[in-house]
Specification:
The chain has about 45 residues and is mostly beta strands. The chain has no helices and 4 strands. A hairpin with a 4-residue loop joins strand 2 (about 25-30) and strand 3 (about 35-40).
Amino acid sequence: MSSGERSLGMESAFIVDLESDDPDMQIVASDSIKETKLFQGRNIIPY
């Protein structure tokens, strides 16, 4: 592993960059097993 890389212990993931003018925004990524709350900025969601 080179410097600047880090292992997150997953084989694949979705990367979601989220930007909004609404500070109270609440967005959730979900599938049949779980839900993951998304935050402003970069979100990494294991797949």
